[in-house]
Amino acid sequence: MFSNQDLTLKERDLISKAREAKDKAYAPYSKFKVGAAVLTKEGKIYTGCNIENASFGLTVCAERVAIFKALSEGERRIETLAVIADVDEPVSPCGACRQVILELAKGAKILLSNKDGSQVIKTTPEELLPYGFTL
Ligand SMILES: O=c1ccn([C@H]2C[C@H](O)[C@@H](CO)O2)c(=O)[nH]1
Ligand SMILES: [Zn+2]
């Protein structure tokens, strides 16, 4: 476990971009706002927030929005993914996102932050989804 001051400036910046994205979350049902930010190997940043729907199963998580935004702009090399939510302990991506991260953010550094960055977990796609399914 790390805290903000143990992180590089780049890592801190990515977490603060994720925090800004969190404020744009559309989460009228759960009221649980999540933000994510992807940094590509070329240095571009794509952000995402969770977007819910009255048909609950259609909800898309912040992580997937950020990753899909990057991929849809042609990006294929994700260096770091940061995720943040207003929680005391680092936010934990759902199973669906873990599967997507394993395939689309292969080799990336994953930063999972609590609300104020006082607790940050640095992990990997493989650690998040051991024995994950791939083709
Ligand atoms: O890592 C996570 C965990 C949850 N959510 C969203 C999905 C839903 O909108 C709300 C409550 O689960 O939070 C995310 O976006 N990312
Ligand atoms: Zn998810």
TrEMBL record:
Organism domain of life: Bacteria
GO CC term (a single one): cytosol
Entry similarity comment: Belongs to the cytidine and deoxycytidylate deaminase family.
EC number of the protein: 3.5.4.5
Annotated Zn(2+) binding sites: C61, C94, C97
EC class of the enzyme, as a word: hydrolase
GO terms for MF: cytidine deaminase activity; identical protein binding; zinc ion binding
Annotated catalytic residues: E63
Its job: This enzyme scavenges exogenous and endogenous cytidine and 2'-deoxycytidine for UMP synthesis.
Gene3D superfamilies registered for this protein in UniProt: Cytidine Deaminase, domain 2
Organism: Thermovenabulum gondwanense
CDD domains named among the record's database cross-references: cytidine_deaminase
Keyword Metal-binding found: yes
Sorted UniProt keywords: Hydrolase, Metal-binding, Zinc
Protein name as catalogued: Cytidine deaminase
